[in-house]
Structures are given as C-alpha cells and as structure tokens.
Amino acid sequence: MSIKQLCNVLVVGLGTIAAVHFAVAREGGPGRGQGGGNGNGGAAKEHGKGHMHHHKNGHDMLGAKLKQEGKHDVGKFGNKTVSAEVKNGKVRNMTAGDLAPKRVRTKMKMASVDGLIVPIALQLTQYEDYYYGYCFDDGIDYDCYWYPSSDVDYVDYTWEDYDPYY
User: Fold this and answer.
1) How far apart are CA 104 and CA 130, in angstroms?
2) Domain boundaries of the chain, sorted by first residue
3) Which of 18, 96, 12, 17 is nearest to 58 (CA)?
4) pTM for the model
C-alpha cells in the first residue's frame, strides 16, 4: 500500500469516526447539555440550551421538484408543513406554517450519513463554497434544511453564519 493510499484510508476513517461522533452527540450522547464540554466556553446556556438540531438534506428531499417552478412540500416541523418555493431551478424561500425561516450558511462540509446531514469536522483543506440552510425553531427543536450553493438563490438575502451551539 502506497503512502497516498494509506493517507486516503486514514482520512476516510477519521471522517467516518467524526460523523458517528456528531450523530451520537445529536441523539443525546455523553455530555449533551452539560454546558462546559461543548467547546464554546459554556455559552450554550445563552444560546437556548436544549435545542435539538435536526439536519435534513433539502436537495434530496426536493429531488426532481427542484426543476419545477412553484411551492413544494418537503416535510413536517411539528404539525406544520414545510414547503420550499422554487423559481428558475433554485430555492428562493422556505416556510413552515406561520414560522419564518432563519437563513444560515456554513463553509463546514455537510455530509449525508444514512439520509441525514451531519457536519464533517476533519478536513485536509478548507471547503471553499457555502452550504445554505433554512432553519425553523419552535423553542425546542431546530430543524435545518441544507442545500449546496448551486440549489439556492442566495444573492437577494442576508445569511447568518450557522451556530451549531444554538
């Protein structure tokens, strides 16, 4: 096995371990909600401690509807229907009943694991493009529908940086 192949195996292995770690943490694994071990100096208490983040792959949920103009239902948030508004092959807006979306973006690579989107912590190079998310918050759950930049009309809106500790 060459050094290049060994490095590739190590990167893939470490990435898988990191993805599993985030998936376990998201499901309430060890240390969840303690405030101290989250890497932000205990600021989780100020950012709505107890928000359960759910990451969804908006691109896959829309599928072929991304090429059809109009409003398309992509899921549920509590008892509200989540809809995406598509124009010219790009998502222009999302709604969940009467809740307005929080528009967020991140350069953190978001990867699909078993149909869920999870952040990948270990990368050899910085990801140069943004992932865009429409997030809905009911005070308990925080659902984000993520799209690659090619799927979103992001120019006409202001996007906040995604805060994983919110």
Assistant:
1) 10
2) 3-161
3) 96
4) 0.63
- Quick one: pLDDT band at residue 9, thresholds 50, 70, 90? low
User: What is the residue whose two structure tokens read 């993805």?
Assistant: 19
* Backbone phi, psi, residue 84, to 5°: -115, 135
Q: Is 19 left (phi over 0), alpha (psi -120 to 50) or beta?
A: alpha
Query: H/E element holding 19?
Result: helix 3-26
Please check the confidence at residue 89 and state whether its pLDDT lies above 70.
yes
The whole-number pLDDT of residue 39 equals 36
Pairwise CA distance, residues 7 & 17, whole Å: 15
Can you tell me the mean pLDDT for 91-101?
93
Residues forming beta bridges with residue 133, ordered by sequence position: 104, 146
pLDDT for 101-134, tens place per residue? 999 999 887 655 555 555 655 444 445 689 999 9
Residue (of 14, 34, 56) closest to 165 by Cα position: 34
Question: Residue 61: CB partners within 8 Å, gap ≥ 6?
Answer: 74, 75, 145
Helix (H) or strand (E) holding 38: none
Euclidean distance between the first and the last CA atom of the chain, given in angstroms as a whole number: 43
